[in-house]
Amino acid sequence: MTPDSIALLYHLDTLQAQSAATLAEKLDTSPQKIRALIKDIEAVGIDVAHKSKAGYCLLRPFDRLDLDAWQKAAQAHGAQLSKTQSNAGHRTILVPLSKNKQPLSLINVATIDSTSNELMRRLPHTDIHALALATEWQTAGRGRHGQPWYAFPGGSLMFSLGWRFTQDSHFLSGLPMAVSLAIANTLEREGFANNIRLKWPNDIVFHFQKLGGVLVELNNDIPDATYAVIGVGLNLYFPRQAREPIARAVTDLYNISKTVPDRNALLAAILIEIVRTLTIYAREGFAAFSAPWQERHAYHQRAVCLLLPDQKIIKGFVAGIDDDGALILSDSPGDKGKGARYTAGEISLYPA
Ligand code: BTN
User: Fold this and answer.
1) 150 partner at 20 to 30 Å CA-CA among 166, 233, 239, 295?
2) Ligand 1 pocket: which of 109, 113, 149, 235 to mutate (most atoms within 8 A of CB)
């Protein structure tokens, strides 16, 4: 997908078909280019109806990212618009906290290599603290362990949020977990399901199938600060054919709740909850979240295999999560909070 194919998607309707010539005029291009862009759109799995005379229309509405809709939804959650810092491509709201208000800005872009790459690129010359960047499409979206991150246009949330901490990276080891908890809490509060769970270290799962993930990257180049770029990917509507390249079981909110989530509303609710979480984390660290995190852990008290970064495999029972976010594995079931600590790796149920 390119900025041009996203622009065409924004102009396609579900009810009214439009000819290549009409669309070409709207986008200031040629009908041939429109036909090529339609092919690009279809190549990612979006259904386009071709009506011989009338032209093209979409079979499902495309729920575009939209700053006005996002702002309205944020205001419905109690945020205020900060008039001084908003303009056409950039919106700043004030998120109410228990004692004060935290500004939060959002920028939407049609396509980008990776929202996290972009915030990291901006870091040397822009203060990315409390700046979120969301996109319709990533050409090089990244997951954990250098894996690609797959998404479906209009059916995914992909964003990154920059945050400045005064603490060092050791203090931030549980940050991705606190963020995944914030997302699971929001999804439940917004009524998608009452058993959204987590998978150590930072996956959001439903019935052991992956619904979303968090990737946190840190930068210490600026004196006395650690900047975190918090990347979030969440599946809202992810059709089966678009999931083919993914090796593991994945799911989406549509499958869970049978409703198509409003992307802008969900983005507002999740960002506000993440901002609240980050302000608590900055004061109290992961210790403030370890108990509720463990309560949501789908693998708690289960027999698991842990694949360590050096490819060693450890078998054990999940006995808990400690105050730094480390996984505690014990040799026998029922051990609570006692066992060996692991700070990195990938778990799976054992036997599978
Ligand atoms: C995971 O592997 O579970 C983490 C996935 C994180 C994906 C998001 S999408 C927005 C941001 N940009 C990226 O390139 N990755 C993160």
Assistant:
1) 295
2) 149
- Residue with CA nearest ligand 1 atom 16: 231
The topology under which CATH files domain 67-294 is BirA Bifunctional Protein; domain 2 (3.30.930)
Q: What is the pLDDT of residue 54?
A: 83
* 36 Cα–ligand 1 center, Å: 29
Task: Report d(CA 272, CA 94) in Å as an integer.
Answer: 9
Q: Which of 232, 251, 346 to probe ligand 1 with, by most ligand atoms within 8 A of CB?
A: 232
Ligand 1 centre from 205 Cα, in Å? 15
- Report the predicted TM-score, pTM, of the whole model to 2 decimal places: 0.96
- Tell me which fold the domain 300-351 belongs to: SH3 type barrels. (2.30.30)
pLDDT higher at 240 or 53: 240
User: Residue 46 contacts by C-beta under 8 Å, 6 or more apart in sequence?
Assistant: 9, 58, 60, 62, 153, 154
pLDDT of 247? 84
Beta bridge partners of 26: none
Measured from the Cα of 203, ligand 1's closest atom is: 3
CATH code: domain 3-58 is 1.10.10.10
For 139-172, what is each residue's pLDDT tens digit? 999 999 899 999 999 999 999 999 999 999 999 9
- Please give the pLDDT value at position 193: 85
> Which residues, in sequence order, are CB contacts of 309 under 8 Å at separation 6+?
344, 345
Average pLDDT, rounded, for the chain: 94
Residue 141 alpha carbon, nearest atom of ligand 1 = 14
